[in-house]
Amino acid sequence: MLFRSIQNELLRWCEKTNRKPLVLRGARQVGKTTVINQLASHFKNYIYLNLEKESDSGFFENHSNVNELVSAIYFAHGKSQDNKTLLFIDEIQEYPKAINMLRYFYEERPEIYVIAAGSMLETLFESDLSFPVGRVEYMVLRPISFYEFVKAKAPANREDIFKTIPIPKYAIETLFKEFHEYALVGGMPEIVSQYIKEQDLVKIQPIYDSLINGYLDDVEKYAKDKKSATLYRLLIRQAFLEAGNRITFQNFGNTKLDYRQVSETLRGLEKALLINLIYPVTNTEIPFQPNHKRSPKLQVIDTGLMAHQLGIQQNILGINDLNSIYKGIFIEHLVGQELLSGQFNALSALNFWVREKKTSMAEVDYVLNFKGKIIPIEVKSGAAGKLRSLHQFMEEAPHEMAIRFYAGEIRIDNVKTSSDKEYKLLSLPYFLAFQVREYLEWFETTLNQETQNI
């Protein structure tokens, strides 16, 4: 059984005194139904409804009063209303009336733990449907993280290792080997489960194709017409080939498509959580404000699917540093996926930094907001003194903290920019990206202790 970190978030939701019905978002096949089935072990009653089935959607068709609806559901499933109950409404997008009913669960039956999910739910957000704003909350499930991957492979000793910050040196070599495995496989649950069971890369190849074909088939459910469906299919395929790059909407991916066609289609794929459009910030201090007039980077749902579609999985075998694969784009994309992996908030996003002037061009792979500071993150190997774009960012930054992910051990370096401004660079192994905030806390504490000891 795969451990998913979101279980801890779901348990916290269960413990809330002002709990609202939860809408669990996530792309197709990221494991939404599985994680809720696992959560059900904490309940006396568990009722599962799949609104693709007429027998289950019929409850909402025949009962507009929430109390009658609840009574009918309990009766049909032979459950007592006296016990603690988790009600999971899957594929809720198939019957939009059920989405409106969520507000009445909150207002009239708050004792029931209600979770709704659906693989195409996101496509309804701009429809005429009235979502119960303020009466539901949202959570996002993303592909499996490296932490979840290694815990599934060797659950007995991994959790304590990652809880130790900084991680012990003796664990680094082993974790790098496992991270390369994870880089090969990716984070889609079905693929990870099959790989852990079989330990055979050949046997999981058809699953990649099956997932991609599933995404291509799904466009029929939300495309407006045949022309729109064709466009979605084209851009899904093209997105995996352009992943990790900065893109322009006009003539995207060497097509002859115009700005509007590409923009609307990619934003539709973003709503379905198949891609992320990562926009740059141009300042080095708060406010943290992405510039949507600049070209975004394109990130797809999973780096494993990306590697499969690009045909670069074989290149990863036996490599010492993932930065040497696909001009460094592959590991940058994977680190981005890891940075997002522990973010369950529906508004969580990635950003990067650019300076685009005729006299000075620079780009830092990622930035994040940490306690009111914009922290730059580079994904590069090599000497710390050669990180030119990072130096340019730190020239302007009102703080001294920067991070680099690379194929090496944990270290803190004193670095100088070209104008002799000093800053501190925390270098971390690639596989710790999912813990970036914990390491920022440790970094800040370490710097404060050094200051006090001077």
From TrEMBL:
Alphabetical list of SUPFAM superfamilies matching this protein: P-loop containing nucleoside triphosphate hydrolases
Pfam families recorded: AAA_14, DUF4143
Gene3D superfamilies xref list: P-loop containing nucleotide triphosphate hydrolases
SMART domains associated with the record: AAA (SM00382)
Residues annotated as domain AAA+ ATPase: 18-143
InterPro entries xrefs: AAA+_ATPase, AAA_14, DUF4143, P-loop_NTPase
Protein name as it appears in the record: ATPase AAA
Species of provenance: Roseivirga seohaensis subsp. aquiponti
